[in-house]
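Ticket reopened. Same input as before:
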Amino acid sequence: MNTIAYFKERFDQFQPSEDHGGLDKIREQAFTAFSNMGIPGTKHEEWKYTRVAGLFNKEFQLPADPLTGTITKGQQIEHPLYIYHVTDARSVNILSQPRSLMIVNEQAQVQVVESYSTLGNNESFTNQVMEIIVENAARLEYYKIQNDGSNTNQVSTTHIRQVGKSFTHTVTISLNGGLVRNNLNVILDAKNCEAHLYGLYFQSGQSHIDNHTIVDNIKPNCLSNELYKGILSDSATGVFNGKIFVRQAAQKTNAYQSNKNILLSDSSSVNTKPQLEIFADDVKCTHGCTVGRLNEEGLFYLQSRGISEKTARNLLLSAYASDILEQIKPEALKLYVEKLINHRLEKDLS
Amino acid sequence: MLTIQNLHAGIEGKKILNGINLHIKAGEVHAIMGPNGSGKSTLASVLAGRSDYEVLEGSVEFLGKNLLDLSPEHRAAEGLFLAFQYPVEIPGLNSVNFIKTAVNEIRKYRGEDPLDAVTFLKRMKEKMALVNIEQTLLSRSLNEGFSGGEKKRNEVFQMAMLEPKLAILDETDSGLDIDAIRIVSNGVNKLRRKDNAILVVTHYQRLLDYIVPDFVHVLYNGRIVKSGPKELALELEERGYDFIKNENTVEVA
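Engineering reply: fixed in the latest deploy. New output:
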């Protein structure tokens, strides 16, 4: 059975018998669009370096559950809202498609943390879509922590639409996994919005990490700042593709983007592509990327003070990661991620 | 303490040191002077163990051990210290954590327990006062955004914390104004003891007004061509390096 037919069969099983006020029709249309497009192959520009089609050579079971939440007007949630994705792959391969919608109402403030765990050693594939609407004077902090096993694969799409003057701050930490593709789309659809996008990926073994981001400036006077940093060892591969659109109406846009990479081995690699598409004439935009090795001069400096080569490497890599970790505002979460990273440094680079 | 015999070394196939002989005893201060390109910094780098330099011939004995067999960190743990001409900026690495790690890694090498937080802090405050460095500087990332003088003061602070047997000061005066040179030199002088030694590598004589050497050696074309008491530095200042160059041209001819 080909992949589309396979999905069609399962899709039909999930279609409810009674009418859901037009939702069913939207689902039908979406499935038709998917049928026409298919699973993207490497000839698809956006998927050139991430071979997602290969994942469907296996049989998957398909559970599904949507999640919706609303942070109501003026509500300020004191503790971070934690969303755990737990996949049970103990007996079969699992394909899950979590679809969530969150609305952060006017003047609301929330910190959201998402993390992923898979039980068992069978293959898992999580195809997630999270959609977040951020209204006027609202503030969203969104943290994604990916630290799952090498048998787990993920396409994780986050759509953020800022529909009023608002503030968003996202940090994506990817420490492990098989194939991980993140699509982070931030649409600045109101004047005076502010969006910060940070990412840290530290991959080893055969893992593959792909961060595709879009910052779409539709309205004037918005600010976006983006910094993604990567460390790749062994045969790990990385992709960064950051697009900034500045629409014609989006005058006085300030948009900054930077991607930095350290390759720790000869067989690790990264493809990085910053892109700017500007249709307005009064904007400030910068973008840039670097790929390099660990700072040899820094390494010698530390060693010359009696610090062993291994400890010196760990100190330099922790220092390199620190400006992203500083962006994790909940202290407990920051400490947790620091611990994960230190553990990885101890384990991987010994 | 340090005995260098017939040391030949180079970098990327280019030979720079052509047979250095030098003997340094505990309690002594030696200065190595020489024109640009004579091999001063190469000598400092080879002694500290910078990996891109290649030793081609000769031996270096440090406190009874073959120095050239040791990794840079083990050289430091044995008591060698290099104050860098260009100290490296490391954003994200806290200066205090860095020096604490260094102190404790060296203690570990020597079979000693790590310093507890209180003892470490006490020692740090003591050394900070000694070399005139402020807490605000050390609470920042290592050397990040430091001025030239601040970087060199941090080098001397690290030297104070690590208590080396032999400290090599590589062009410590470069890029410093006279006030900064005085502050840095005062710090170094306070660290002088009967059981340690200092090797000052410098282009100019002025640093030697503050750190007064027992011996001055002139390096030219990768060899020590002249050695003498501290007055030799004054002669070089007065006559320039040309008379050394001329003398050597004659010798070769």
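Chain A has five helices and 17 strands. Chain A touches chain B at residues 295, 297-298, 300-309, 311-312, 315-316, 318-323 (CB under 8 Å). Please confirm and we'll close it.
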